[in-house]
Structures are given as structure tokens and as C-alpha cells.
Amino acid sequence: MYHLECIKCGAKYPADEVIYTCKKCDGLLDVVYDYSKIHLTREDLKGPLSVWKYKALLPVSGEPVTLKEGGTPIYHMKKIGAEIGLKEAYAKHEGMNPSGSFKDRGMTVGVSKALELGMKSVACASTGNTSASLAVYGARAGIPVIVLLPQGKVALGKVAQALMHGARVISVKGNFDDALRLVRELCIENGIYLLNSINPYRLEGQKTIGFEIVDYFGWEVPDRIILPVGNAGNITAIYKGLNEMKKLGIIDRIPKMTGIQAEGSAPIAKAIKSGAANISVEEHPETVATAIRIGDPVNAVKALNAIRKSGGTAETVTDEEILNAQKMLAVKEGIGVEPASAASVAGLIKLRNMGVIEDDERVVCVVTGHLLKDPETVIKNCDKPIEVEASEEAIEKVLGIKKMKVKAK
Ligand SMILES: Cc1ncc(COP(=O)(O)O)c(C=O)c1O
Ligand SMILES: N[C@@H](CCOP(=O)(O)O)C(=O)O
């Protein structure tokens, strides 16, 4: 059994109450389980990775709305690791989820919960991936979906997904933070279920990234998990989940939670660096990594706590560092990710060069979304295809191939 609990004042709410923040103090909510009633061991968790493998720690009782999310690969980044003198550098490729990003873990739980609560429609604001995922899972569930997108700032692949899967797509003349404020009002006033990461049930699904990481390594906890941070739900969800596993005796420690933000959009990294108790809102966030172009992260309080309590850190990376890391992953490791996702690897490189990450650390970078989400940025940053006439000679000429003449007998 579980209930909702305010992280600020401790007020408790029943599991079936549709609320997103505390009615007394407006604090963020967490789903809190009766851990004394959960008997889960490593033995129970044998078998392939997937979100629903960890059902005992998820707040859904019936059959979930699922497209077989989770179970994403972990790749050893041997070449990038060798370049920075780190043997144990890994990337967990969340772009391999059904809609191409980690949001599917949250939406399988969030949309299942919407149905369980009897909600008739769902909505979100989005820099792209949340809307794509909600559109997909809404279609699967047969429930209407409304998405609010910041005009002109959403990557093409993501808009295409939201449109194709049948969401009502509204383009807002403002940034993501404006769209989130508007969708929160819209949902509360009209009884629409809000499925941004302020919804504590959605975040429960995302904690399974952490479960899968420790499960993959035979319950050996890596020293550090590095994530790109935008609205800051993912880093907090993974931290919460790993704490639950520790409470249940399945793991014995928590990795250093490390958040990476783009320089032009870095309220959390700035607060960590300055030691400020809370963030200062970035009024005009800007970065090529549109997925993390967020100035007022809704989960900031939870994220600062996760980073500080785990002994982790936060860092900023430039757009140039992000695009370089995206290309390194693609060319040297064969891993195709969108720009925001590459921020975690750009952060890995920067923190290693700064001496923050030690030689013997095992580090897992979560790469959050697929390369094909943002084809426009890719095309801008790669050489153009070479145009040739339709002849073998022309192709050989541009490839610099000289044919050996075969002598006739
Ligand atoms: C691809 C991608 N990476 C990272 C993030 C940041 O995740 P979070 O908002 O949970 O910090 C997002 C969305 O916010 C995203 O779409
Ligand atoms: N990158 C996100 C931004 C919204 O974050 P959420 O986790 O609160 O839904 C997106 O893909 O829209």
C-alpha cells in the first residue's frame, strides 16, 4: 500500500486523490509505500530487465498500459573511456524505448494511473519528448491527449510523433516554463490529468532506470550516475528508487547523482556550485539541446536534495561540448543520441578533465533520447552528402579509388 506525502511539510494524502502539490504548503509530493509490507529480494528479481519487472515498487494494481518499455541496453564506452583514462564508462541508451526516450517509463505508469483514477483525458507541456511519449501511451490507452509545446523550439521528430499518434497539439507563443504554467492551470480547472513530472506517479516509472542499472551490474552499485537535467524529474526519480532498494536491503549504497545542464539553461548547476539553498529562475533559457531548455525546473527542490545527499555534483557544459559529445558517441561508439542526451557524456568528459571523477570509478551516463528525435540539428552539424552522376567512375573518383587494370588472357 502507498499514499502521497509532501516532501516539505509531511502532509499525507490518500493514493486516489488527484493532486499534484501539497494543499497546505504547495510542496512537491512523493509516493510513499509501506516498506514493511514489501518483501522483495534479489532472488525475486531474476530475469530480463523491464519496467514492470519491478511492479512491487510501482503504484499500479491492475494490468498496465504498456508497449514493453525499459530493458534498454547498457554499452561499455571503451573508446571514449580510453580517451579520458576511465576503464569503466558506460552509457544506458534510453533512446531504445518505444517512443525513443526515457519518458516512456513514466508514461506507462502515469497513463495506467490515469485510467485507474477514472480520468477522461490527459495533458502535458513539453519540450518534445514528454509530448511524444504521452501521445503514444494515450493512443495505446484510448484516452484523448492534449500537449502544449513552446512555439518553434521543439525538435521535428518529436512534433511528428505527437501529431501522428493523434494528440491535440497546441503551439504556445512562449517558452516551456510558460507552457507548463498554463497546462497546470488548464488541468486543475478542467479535471484533465496532468502528466508532467510534477505528477509523482509518473516519476515512479522513471525510477526503474536506476533499478535496471544496479540489476545489470549484479546489484553492484556504480560509483556515479550522470544525467542531463531539465525539469529535474529523472535525477530525483532514480535517486528515490535507489533509496527504496537500499531500504529493502537489495543494494548497500547510493551512487553519486550527478546532473549536467547546458550553460545557457543551468539553474540547478548554478545553485549547486554556489551552495544556494534554492535555484534562481533562468528567465531566458537558451541551448541547442532544446529538450533541456528549461529555466524553472519544477523538481528543483527534489533534485538539489538528491545531488547533495548522494555526494554528487552538478556541472554545466557549452553547446559546443554537447555537440562534440554527440558526435563522439555516434562516430566512436556507434551510439546515436539527441543533443540533450549527449550532455551527460559531455559532463563526464568535463568532470574527468577537472579531476572530479577518479581513475577507478564506474560511471554510468544515462543517454536519454534517440538521435532521430532531432534530425535538423544533426544535418546542420554534419557534412552534406556528396552529389555525383549515376556512374561507377564518378563514385570511384570521389572516393579516390584507382582501379587495377585486369589483363585479358
Ligand atoms: C532527451 C531528454 N534528456 C533529458 C531531459 C531532462 O530530464 P528531466 O526533465 O527529467 O531533468 C529531457 C526532458 O526534460 C529530455 O527530453
Ligand atoms: N524534456 C521534457 C520537459 C518536460 O519535462 P517533464 O519531465 O516535466 O515532462 C519534455 O520532453 O517535454
UniProtKB/TrEMBL annotation:
Q: Which residues form a coiled coil?
A: none
Protein name (Swiss-Prot/TrEMBL): Threonine synthase
InterPro entries in alphabetical order: Ser/Thr_Dehydratase (IPR050147), Ser/Thr_deHydtase_PyrdxlP-BS (IPR000634), Thr_synthase-like (IPR004450), Thr_Synthase_bac/arc (IPR026260), TrpB-like_PALP (IPR001926), TrpB-like_PALP_sf (IPR036052)
Cofactor annotation: pyridoxal 5'-phosphate
* Family that this chain belongs to: Belongs to the threonine synthase family.
GO molecular function annotations of the record:
L-serine ammonia-lyase activity; pyridoxal phosphate binding; threonine deaminase activity; threonine synthase activity
Question: Which source organism does the UniProt entry give?
Answer: Methanocella paludicola (strain DSM 17711 / JCM 13418 / NBRC 101707 / SANAE)
Which top EC class applies here? lyase
| Gene3D superfamilies per UniProt | 3.40.50.1100
For binding pyridoxal 5'-phosphate, which residues are annotated in this chain's numbering?
N129, G230, N231, A232, G233, N234, T368
